[in-house]
Amino acid sequence: MKLVRENIAKRILAEDATQISQASDNTEFLMFLKLKLSEELDELRESNYSDVNEFADVLEVLETLAEQHGLSFSKILEAKHNKAQVEGDLKRGLIYKKLT
User: Fold this and answer.
1) Is residue 2 part of a domain?
2) 96 within domain boundaries
3) For the chain, how many structural domains are there in total?
4) Cβ within 8 Å of residue 74, ≥6 positions away
5) Domain range holding 81?
6) CB-CB contact of 2 with 39 (8 Å)
7) 87: left (phi over 0), alpha (psi -120 to 50) or beta
8) What's the CA gap between 92 and 29, in Å, rounded?
9) Is the Cβ–Cβ distance between 3 and 32 less than 8 Å?
């Protein structure tokens, strides 16, 4: 079993109504969202981080997961911006190497 997008579920239902069900509660939904995130990250890796659709899928899952925890995506983007203002971002590729 895995979480699928609404229109994919509609296509599946058109073929076989026994294959689609809804999460029984929020705990189950969160479990499937976490599994979906792992699946989508694997697909992004497999695309060698070059497929815009795989990035979109990861963002979709992250946005839905955040909403389930009461966080809006706009709040996350605001926090990302604020953190970058205070601590900087990752765009320069700086690597920390601990000296022993």
Assistant:
1) no
2) no
3) 1
4) none
5) 24-87
6) yes
7) alpha
8) 37
9) yes
